[in-house]
Amino acid sequence: MGGVDTGGAGALTSRETEVLALLAEGRTNRQLARELYISEKTVSVHVSNILAKLGVRSRTEAAAVARRDGLLDKDQ
Fold this sequence. Notes:
single chain, mainly alpha, Arc Repressor Mutant, subunit A
C-alpha cells in the first residue's frame, strides 16, 4: 500500500467522498450503512481508507480536513 498519499482528496474514490460527506455530518457507521445500502464492515473499510488517505487519525479530524480543504462542497 505504501506511505501516506499526499494527493489528499484527489486520491479518494467517489464512494469514499460520499462516505466522508456523511461522516462529516456526524453519521455513525450503522447510519451510513443503512443510508448507502452497504454493510457496516464495508463502511468501516471506507472510513479506514479515508483516514489513511487524508493522513488523519480520527473521524473528527477527517471532517475538519474535509471542511478546511473544501472537499464537501464539490458535489453538494
